[in-house]
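Structure in, sequence out. Go:
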């Protein structure tokens, strides 16, 4: 899995290309006043990555276990806190996630199990466990 991001000589608008067999193009930007608001900010994309990862994880689990879900809604909010707002042990980024699983034929036990499975989505695991980041810079072009 790979993504590339490119930005021109002015502004904050960034074109992101992803995809394994086809190229998918997204746009990131900063809000009006700083940028042109042509797309979500990188932090909003992170929130979207987590939300979509949870929905995809739950759909896969429901399909394998043949649980008749009508859909999944995931709301993710990322709050950046100032160092002066932090108490002992708190981090500058707070992520709030709310998962709603739709389906009348789902038992309480199935719903509870699905919420546990939601905690195992790859994006959430990367956020909680951390990642090994290898950074390299290219010569000036």
């Amino acid at each position: 899995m790979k993504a590339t991001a490119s930005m021109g000589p002015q502004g904050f608008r960034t074109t992101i290309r992803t995809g394994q067999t086809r190229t998918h193009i997204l746009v990131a930007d900063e809000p009006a006043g700083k940028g042109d608001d042509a797309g979500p900010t990188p932090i909003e994309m992170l929130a979207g990555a987590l939300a979509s990862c949870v929905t995809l994880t739950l759909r896969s689990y429901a399909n394998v276990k043949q649980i008749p879900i009508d859909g999944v809604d995931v709301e993710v909010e990322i709050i950046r806190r100032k160092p002066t707002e932090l108490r002992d042990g708190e981090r500058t980024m707070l992520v709030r996630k709310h998962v709603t699983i739709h389906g009348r034929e789902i038992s309480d036990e199935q719903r509870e199990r699905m919420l546990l499975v939601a905690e195992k989505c790859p994006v959430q695991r990367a956020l909680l466990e951390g990642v090994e980041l290898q950074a390299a810079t290219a010569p000036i072009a």
